[in-house]
Amino acid sequence: MRWPAAWKGVPGAELLDGTAIEAIDPTAPGPDVTIAKGVWPGVRMSRRGADADAGPTGVAWVDSNTWLARLTAVRHPGTVWIDAPPDANRAPRPHQYLVTMADAAAGGARWLISLDDALAAGVARREPRALAAWKQIGAASRFFAEHPNWATWAPEAVVGVISDFAGGNEFMGQELLNLLDRAGQHFRILLKNRLTAGSLTGLRALLYADQEPPPADLRKQVLAFVESGGVLITVPAWGETPGKPAGAAAVPGYSGRVLGKGRVIVANAAPDDPYVLANDSVVLVSHRYDLVRCWNSGAVSSYFTIAPDRARAAVQLLFYADRGPDAASVRVVGRWRKAAISTIEDPAPRPVKLEPQKDAVEVYLPQVSQYVALQLEG
Amino acid sequence: MSCPYSRRQWLTRTAAAVSGAYLTRGFPGLAAEAPASTVAVARCRTYSNNELLPVMEKLFDQLGGLGRLVKGKTVAVKINLTGAPTYRVGYLPLEDTHYTHPQVIAAAAHLMGKAGARRIRILESPWSTADPVEEYILRANWEPRDILGAAPNVEFENTNFLGSGKRYSRMKVPHGGYVWPAFDLNHSYEDCDVFVSIAKMKEHATAGITLSMKNCFGITPCTVYGTGAGEDEPTLIPKGGRGLIHSGYRGPSKSAPQELDPKSPREDTWRVPRTVADLISARPIHLAIIDGIKTMTGGEGPWIREVTTGVAPGVLVAGTNPVNTDAVGMAVMGFDPMAVRGTPPFERCDSTLQLAEAVGVGTRDLKRIEVAGTPIAEARFDFAAMRRKRRSAPPPAMGIRG
């Protein structure tokens, strides 16, 4: 955590006792630690403060660091810390700290705890409300430290996003990751200079939106993926595409070609809005292949990871509204037999009702707060 | 949530908000000559094909058979998928509360195919998107292939934008229009020989009830009539709902026919019933089907700030005249189809049935409508009594439903 100025002289051991919080020096974090600069997560409020800002289709706009945590981990294997202090002019409510911690933890990172001045001062003065909020933060740190597997298990993915996510491709590449999360798509991050033979295994589609054509070996690997039944969604910069013209794509503004058993779908013009490309790509791949579907969840993100034995899985759900949802349900692909939930407030797994569907299960969530980890067993 | 007004005060204020001159203006006088035709009613307790298919087949036979209506024809079927597919009443599937059930759609398509329909086009304008309807219903946890495979040549089209058409179809309101002289609609509503509305049996917060006629409110493309419609020309992609029709705070895209009288009331309870009457005049309904096997009480969707509950009336209603059919549907719901503004379910709105009847679309007078199959009294599921009970209780504390 970032030690608050108000805590000068406060004995650290007393405050950190029973938590999994470590004090690090952000200016010298250590050889295996990468600190990524993030944003304060949550539903972005309008300037008037009363309403949520909305995306182009009226869906609440959510800021999140999970994609950043994942991208940073792919680029710099090791421990990732997300540095996203609260807005100095707007003291967060206690639950927003938990959302911030969960948002980073779902992506396998840790939030560099940064308390707002009022909370830090309140804790130093031993004010009961401030201490209660601090206790929750400590409980959250312990909760995520006790469940490292959920983030280290392999992320389930439908689409692979290939880019270098840097230079001229930084904005489009990184925003695609952010907005695919928002669209509920599960993705794998693929650095274009580090693809291996197994990088594409299990994926249904690839998304390539870089400004320049792919290197020859990458092109070859991607087209082999398509020929064996995959889908490539790309932009004119990809260059010439083999195969035969297909009918109109499911979304206006794209043209399709059939190549082997798969399809290449090319945007008719270079995209300038990653929101549109991210959402179009979900439909071009098809919601048929959704790994997780949520109902009555409001602004939600889901992170689905599976244990190496594929007999256990975790779906971490983050609800970004000020209250957790009621009567929310979630459909998860897979033939799971048992389901249990854990929350920060109630960490012991609690069995929940599960309804089998075709190649999936639906789980009915009880009233929960902003974060719940759904644990599944096959 | 606290409300500064009592229900009675609120109703009075709402009624007063609609200009007195407009309220007292008479309705056109074609009610007496408005046509009457047979409406069929059937009990059907489940969506199982074993029960549903024979019941629907018999229902259509009681109307003279589907063949005479659809043989060799292109049939357009407007279904009801109101609201986002991720928004449910509690844990209930959307089709058990506020969406037309996919089994009813598939059964209707199957029977139309069997009766010789050449092409069956399933139409809807899903909430704020140009995505294919197939993609939209996947998010509701439906399988589009169940509908597409119900008969030969079944297809979907999203009519919330230009869709596969080259231009919008201008459809004139034959009686001149209450609010609109004509509409610019997706081509699918013109490029068909037969138009079918398959609705859900529900109450409605703005229009009192939503049956086969109100279902057609959704034929308006939001690229022209939506919150995010272009000022001069339609947008390419729909954004938001139909707030401009509801409240009249602005006009549709200038490329489309504008309102007849921009000084008319801006209240949704005045505008929506009239807009629906105009729409079903411009795009006449040849077959009206109301899915009341499972549905909800309290309103048209989970977003309604009234107690909403999933219920199973176990009834289907069908007819070839939408006003007649909705009149019987209302009676099955325990409401008086002759009800006018100020009486349930039109406590604060005008009756779409009355408005449509007044321009000669069809009668709502049960004395003139022949009911085939199950008598209304036997099919009745008393939404009206539940409404009285619900509204006599203190309003619930509202939580966040996601």
Attribute tags:
heterodimer; A: alpha/beta; Immunoglobulin-like; 7-stranded mixed sheet; 6-stranded antiparallel sheet; 9 helices; 22 strands; globular; B: 402 residues; alpha/beta; 8-stranded mixed sheet; two-stranded antiparallel sheet; 14 helices
Description:
The complex is a heterodimer of chains A (378) and B (402). By secondary structure, chain A is α/β, with parallel strands linked by helices. Helices cover 25% and strands 26% of the residues of chain A. Chain A has helices spanning 12-16, 66-75, 94-106, 117-124, 128-146, 149-152, 170-182, 216-227, 274-285, and strands spanning 33-37, 42-43, 62-63, 79-83, 110-111, 154-155, 159-163, 187-191, 205-208, 231-234, 244-248, 254-259, 262-267, 292-295, 300-306, 312-319, 329-333, 338-342, 350-351, 354-357, 360-364, 371-377. Chain A is globular, with a radius of gyration of 22 Å. By secondary structure, chain B is an alpha/beta fold. Chain B is 29% helix and 15% strand. Chain B is built from 14 helices and 14 strands. Chain B has an eight-stranded mixed sheet with strand order 4-3-2-7-10-13-1-14, sandwiched between helices. In chain B, strands 5-6 form a two-stranded antiparallel sheet. In chain B, strands 8-9 form a two-stranded antiparallel sheet. In chain B, a hairpin with a 3-residue loop joins strand 8 (202-204) and strand 9. In chain B, helix 3 (49-62) packs across helix 5 (102-114) and helix 10 packs across helix 12 (352-358). Chain B is globular, with a radius of gyration of 20 Å.
